[in-house]
User: Fold this.
Amino acid sequence: MLIFTFILLPIISALILILYERINSESGSLITFATTLINLSLSVLLLFILNGGQMVYHFGGWPAPIGISLVLDSFSLLMLFVINLVSCVSMLYSIDYIKHYDSRTKFFILNLFLIAGLNGVVLAGDIFNLYVFLEIIAFASYALIAFGLGKEDMEASIRYQVIGTIGSFFIFFGIGFLYSVTGSLDLADISKIIYQSASTNRAILFAIPFLLFGFSLKAALVPFHAWLPDAHPTAPAPVSAMLSGVVIKVSGIYGIVRIFFSVTGVSPTLLNILLYAGFISIFFGAFAALYQNDFKRILAYSSISQIGYIMLGIGIGTPLGYAGALLHILNHAAFKSLYFMVAGSVDYATGTRDIRKLGGLSKKLPVTFLASISSSLSLAGIPPFGGFFSKFIIILALVKAGKITLSILIILSFLLTLAYFLKIQGKVFLRSQNSELYPNIKEVPYSMRLAMIIMAIMCLGLGLGFPWVLKIIINSAVHIFSNGVGYGNIISGL
Amino acid sequence: MGTLIYISSFLLFLIGLYCVVVKNNLIKIIIGIKIMGYGVCLFYIMISYKSNAIAPIVLKDAKNYTDPYPHAIIPAIMAASFAAMILMLATSIRLYEKHKTLDMSKIKELKG
Amino acid sequence: MPRVIKILTNYVIGPIITFGVYIFIFGHLLPGEGFDGGMIVASILILCIIVYGKDEMEKRISVNTAVLISVLSAIIFIIIGFVGMAGLRMEHKYFLDNFLPQGSFSHLFSGGIVPILNILVGFSVAFGFYAIFAYLSEYKTEE
Amino acid sequence: MFEILIIVFLVFILIAAVAAVEMKDLLSSIMALSVVGFGLVIIFIFLAAPEVVSAQLIVEMLCFVSLVVVVNKTSKTDETKLYSMREISPVSAGLFFAIIFIIFGLWGIKGLPPFGEPVMKVSSIYIQKVISEIGAKNIVTAILMDFRAFNTLIEVILLITLFVGVATILRKKGRKDAESN
Assistant:
């Protein structure tokens, strides 16, 4: 099967759009939506064909350690499905949302390059190729955050650029250490060499903090989260939906899992670092979200705390913890991108994001209200919706791993998430109409409503179809974590 | 003097990191990032050096060459980090036009 | 710009452009790469922007044609990849495969698709950096 | 004798880098930055890397030119911040963090292969294959365009995203109803 269509299709359509932009600089939405739809259907097709197996594609006919190869195993297939789902829905959403902005084709070109970079990181079998795709994601999202050319957009973009470049240089320095000790750049090759001869080499132990520092900078874990709360509110809604739904997970968590679980092998101290980093970011994000008045800033801080849940799940170290973390990646991508779309349509209809001025929109914006109910219930973890199951599995894994005090504190953190979700729902939708400021609010256009409905159904479907989701997607992905460094023998065997 | 020489690229990296963390002026931050980039590229080329070996051009009698792998990687990364620096300069021009100052501490207070 | 610089650049442009184009055409024989040759050509074009001023250069090479050339050469790069996949040589069926004959060792037409890709990367990088610098210099901050 | 020359230039570059960081006036710190760049060019000549020499030379020139163009467009005045009290805390934190990093680095660098002997596991295969199967004289270009051709394609795509990115940031109008900003 041709795995490289996930990367080349967006690139080709983006290049065509650059040529087309000279003729009509306001079009391009249909080509983008068609590309993401093809990619989504391809990834769903692969979900059914490839249950648990691996797929490798060598470029130029050279075998693995010499040429470049794309590797698709079940964990990257799960991430591929998340990427293409969120990008397809956000492109549908942005067909009408982007009417507020100027020179729209550039927005779609940059989004296509962003999607190509995301698919590339997930499929890369070569560690330097993975770094170049990380840079494509970073540069595309720098320009997308600054798309509005406003005073805050520029400041948020420059801050994200500085922190993102530092993260990239740390990762590149770590790759340099890996190359100089092992002599090859292929992921499977490096993991085999490290596993056989160099697992206690000082340089590898010295490279691990560099890589961890770089990837956690990109995943916005607590000590390095400074750029996230500024980057999200000012970015256009589909971009911030992609950013917090997918980009943080792919360039942060996927990098940590792929490099540390499959290549250098994970040590108990590293797992504990991930566990407590996740724990701190849960509480930091939740507390900070309580004191914000900007709709999207609350969501940005809640993204930090939800990423903390995923880190917590990975940090536990047991297969149950991995299953909970992976399921939460899927659920968080669904409900957080939906909630950002809801925030975007409230911003589109009323023109402001300050929840103090908003109120009583449930009657004026019925579809948006319905979608916000589905996403906030899933965020808070109410049973029929997806969010409940992933958090429940993480709690179960914590209890089984014997960390009782931690699990009690995590249950307390549920109340915090409940608190800030009630704050948003109450102030924005349910409160009596206090604002004669916005007399002529009319419902958002069709494509935005359709996108929100699709994502709301997805949130509900992940909850109701939970046993099927667990069996098809999650179980095979958990093996990637458990067999760890065996990744090298399996992949180079193909 | 086996591996001590690598410390120089490591120091260059740290000087760049120090400049980015401490300085407030935007152009100084961009200079700090440029120095970090030089440090990393220097590290890659120092790895690939082989004593008494010639440059990786195939000659009839030559037997050992320096490691050609990082030489293929570094020019592309240099071009990318140069273009990234122009992206940062473009954003700082726009920032200067809106905020009339390039001092990040003042810009942060303005946002409130 | 004072006249003496204008006259000097008239003389300098010819040799440097040929040097840059020489590097990425003979890239597979001599120590040159697509990226280096492209950047040499880009640096001389940027010198023309500074010396002759942007509107003068706009008449010769407009920013749109520069972006057009750099994107077209990237598209041709992908097309060559797909041609390789079509499998002219039976056993090779992969994207970006070296399908052209190997040619004699140290002559111009040796090394399969390596020289062609080198030239394409050279053009794409040269006109791309020219376009990026044209954007930077034409932007006037409204005082 | 050869390595001593490299060490002399490395020390020279470190001093120039510290100068570039600490100088007050922007234009002179850009000048110090280009001293670091061109010193690096000389070191790459010693380390027998011809492609990287030309790449670094040109990138350094373009970087110097664009920095000066931008500084002329914005604030030519030097950096306004003097060493006030507020400055001391990040400086001391930065220095303390740097010292820990250097000590850990000294310990970690011992694990790397010594300076003159690179582990050429994959590159030795490349050198044999270039002569036998590809026939291009320049191994680096053969690696770049044949063994890792997909990587070069992605680098070109990376540069094109940056060109579009700069074009979006420097365009005339952004948001139509710029209500808040």
Summary: Chain B has a mean pLDDT of 84.
